[in-house]
Amino acid sequence: MQTHQATGNAQDRLAAVFSNMSGPLAVAVSGGVDSVTLATFAHRSAADRVEMFHAVSPAVPDEATDRVQQLARDQGWRLRVVDAGEFKDENYLANPVDRCFYCKTHLYDCIARHCSAQILSGANLDDLREYRPGLEAAKEHAVRHPYLEAGIDKKTVRLLAHELGLGAISELPAAPCLSSRVETGIAIRPEVLKAIYAVERSIAREFPAGVVRCRVRANRVVIELDPGTLAGMDVEHKDEVRAVADRAFAGIASTVDLSFAPYRNGSAFLHSHA
């Protein structure tokens, strides 16, 4: 009862935020639980003036795009799929510590070119605890963050998703873009992201409930797994992953020095923002 009550209060707060927004709205939808839940709520609150924007690129996993397009069909969203153009920007491809700033800048610029709507993002309170250069890009583009305005954290977003009938989406693990797997300072290349995706998908098919990150370091590849998945992966499984990695990175690296480690959030950053 308390959980339902808390979720109801969150919905009321979010509804109050939307009631104070006039004019057209544009929701940036990556395909993760935060943005999908926001898009669903926005559509139900103001369908006639809301358009969803989903950016595709080599850094966006196919299943994220498939999920967004399926939800658009099921819920009747107005959806525009765009290429924001960050892969043409040398600043982004250089993979600096503030890479996300350039990505979000391109995204918001792209949305602004297509419409004059108020742009909304799915940033929540938990995002404020980490270094998020994308929030600086949002500030420069006057993007609003309904979850922040309503005081909603990640846990509450998941509860909202469940209450809104989004089913398994409410339990989606965090899934940052594929570029986040590449260590700071190592150039972002589409072929490397494709290899990363192939390795992660291979593991996810065997361990669908786990957290999987294929991290590309300066001289090696590290497969980071949640404790349960790491404990359940025997020698045979690890050999299979090594074989998949050898195939995926063929033509990119002559040999793949691969190891396994416990998952650490944001471990591809060489240093934190000062």
UniProtKB/TrEMBL annotation:
Signal peptide: none
Entry's Gene Ontology molecular function annotations: hydrolase activity
Annotated InterPro entries: Ni-pincer_cofactor_biosynth, Rossmann-like_a/b/a_fold
Coiled coil: none
Annotated keywords: Hydrolase
SUPFAM superfamilies: Adenine nucleotide alpha hydrolases-like
Name listed for the protein in its UniProt record: Adenine nucleotide alpha hydrolase
Organism in which the protein naturally occurs: Dyella solisilvae
Highest classification ranks of the organism: Bacteria, Pseudomonadati, Pseudomonadota, Gammaproteobacteria, Lysobacterales
